[in-house]
Amino acid sequence: MSFSPSGTVAGAAAEAELAGPDAVNALVGSIETDRRDSFVALGSAFLTRLPASPLPAPYLVGISADTAAQLGFDASHAHDPAFIEYFTGNTTRDLPPDELPYASVYSGHQFGVWAGQLGDGRAIGLGEIEHGGKRLELQLKGAGRTPYSRMGDGRAVLRSSIREYLCSEAMHHLGIPTTRALCVTGSDQPVRREIMETAAVVTRVAPSFVRFGHFEHFYTNDRPHELRKLADHVIDRFYPQCREADDPYLALLNEVTLRTADLMADWQAVGFCHGVMNTDNMSILGLTIDYGPFGFIDGFNAGHICNHSDSQGRYAYKMQPQIGYWNLFCLAQALVPLFGPHYDEAVRNEKIIEDAQRVLEGFRDRFAPALERRMRAKLGLAEIRDGDDKLANQLFEAMNANRADFTLTFRNLAKMHKADASGDAPVRDLFLDRAAFDVWANAYRLRLSEETRSDEDRAIAMNAVNPKFVLRNHLAENAIRLAKEKDFSEVERLARVLRHPFSEQPEFESYVGLPPDWANGLEVSCSS
Ligand code: AMP
Ligand code: MG
């Protein structure tokens, strides 16, 4: 409780009583719906303003205190009915036209094929909040049909909304760039998927929700003016350093290439599979965006496919970096009309292809060392030696052959000692073929003996990069099953555990182990 300036008990009580609605009003009032240099100011070629479709009797499923604080809001007020109604999209109907939420239009390549116009089919932007020197856009996902809904119902179900909420917050705390989630609200309104489910809304938060597909949209529709306007918006707001370059748009491609390469290295290093890396699900800021059938790998399989609708394995774990690169090609293609204004018309075409290819080649130069750095840290190697990449690859091969648990293997490596095998058991026991593990362990120990760092110091460093807690499918499933019974305590508890993925948290040991047998049959599809 805060102290009232008057210092009287009555004053404090009155303040506490008013604080809920006041705090919600202050939050909602701080959302700017028409700021000059925001995405929404790009105008009607980019978006359609419309109200959200209300949902009956909404309730709060989860609230991220951390994301709330980013917005200057105290999460303890999130149970206030005004908060729940607002973030379910129930109060936008009577807004004046220029303050209405907005759905944006984009296009994209889905599963390698041009899919034409897509757009925010079930997400609407509320506007931006500036707090603590940072500007964040807020978006309701699942808030009803928009002009871009195509055959969809504009809704998101409770199951997938809880998964997005938990995973985006978990990724943030793993140190991986991502959109974030403020809250999830639910309603008993039925929604048809493979089975009947119920509706929910996730409030997503990010500096920008612009995707590669936004650029592809204006390129394929032959709208160079809008294409440039969008690129200028992204550069001015997020990559102002590109203005210094000879060709700011090529510089933009370069920045996005580097961020995407880093993101791919981040995903590979924690065993995260996105599941639907279509170009419309690729963030221009290099954020993890659009959580659908994602998954963290349990037993390692380099070919792991987390999306059971992905029959070809296009988005399998081992494919992700290549697909990131492929998606950047699509982005580069869309930016072509903007490249090379300084070239003579006679040589321009040839030059810009050369330039774009050179920039795209930068993906490999960035990705390989980025992953190598992460792998070296995961193995606890402070020094650089030839053969470190081979050591890492041999571990992956053994993990793959034995379906050794990704998270536990890396976490338990920190328990090994460089002088003897007395600390091997926790990781060794994850490999059915103990002899194969021992071969690798001996090579690893030999390598560790070249390190000056003590075992203790190495373990501390490794535990800061190898998470103990990730959002395994079965953990999410447990929280979802209870939430369907209106018990949201497990969503809250799991969110709390995932906020400290690198800490020991011995009281949460049950969140660490291998998935139970019932989880083997869990399948996650695109349907969300
Ligand atoms: P995704 O692959 O889930 O990111 O979605 C691809 C496209 O389909 C996007 O344009 C989404 O907005 C749209 N979409 C997905 N689900 C729905 C739905 N239930 N209603 C309307 N549009 C949807
Ligand atoms: Mg999407």
Automatic annotation (TrEMBL):
It comes from the Bacteria. ATP binds at residues 119, 121-122, 141, 153-154, 204, 211, 290. It is an enzyme of class 2 (transferase). It catalyses: L-threonyl-[protein] + ATP = 3-O-(5'-adenylyl)-L-threonyl-[protein] + diphosphate; L-tyrosyl-[protein] + UTP = O-(5'-uridylyl)-L-tyrosyl-[protein] + diphosphate; L-seryl-[protein] + ATP = 3-O-(5'-adenylyl)-L-seryl-[protein] + diphosphate; L-seryl-[protein] + UTP = O-(5'-uridylyl)-L-seryl-[protein] + diphosphate. Pfam families: SelO. InterPro entries: SelO (IPR003846). The keyword Manganese applies. The keyword Cell membrane does not apply. One of its GO terms (molecular function) is manganese ion binding. Its cofactor is Mg(2+); Mn(2+). Its EC number is 2.7.7.-, 2.7.7.108. Keywords: ATP-binding, Magnesium, Manganese, Metal-binding, Nucleotide-binding, Nucleotidyltransferase, Transferase. Mg(2+) binds at residues 281, 290. The active site is at 280 (proton acceptor). Belongs to the SELO family. Nucleotidyltransferase involved in the post-translational modification of proteins. It can catalyze the addition of adenosine monophosphate (AMP) or uridine monophosphate (UMP) to a protein, resulting in modifications known as AMPylation and UMPylation. This is Protein nucleotidyltransferase YdiU. It comes from Caballeronia sordidicola.
